[in-house]
Amino acid sequence: MNDKLFEKMSNENAPAILLPFARAIITSFTAQANIPPIILPLLNLTKSKE
Asked: How far apart are CA 23 and CA 40, in angstroms?
């Protein structure tokens, strides 16, 4: 893997893959803490780079 491809994968694809997991964890954690759950909005990270 060349450096340019690695840079693109780590800057664009990694956050897009991790975001659903972060949303689920934050929502679950806040709901279990007996406060109104914080639900992060859905984001299209591939279109925001353009």
From this structure: 6
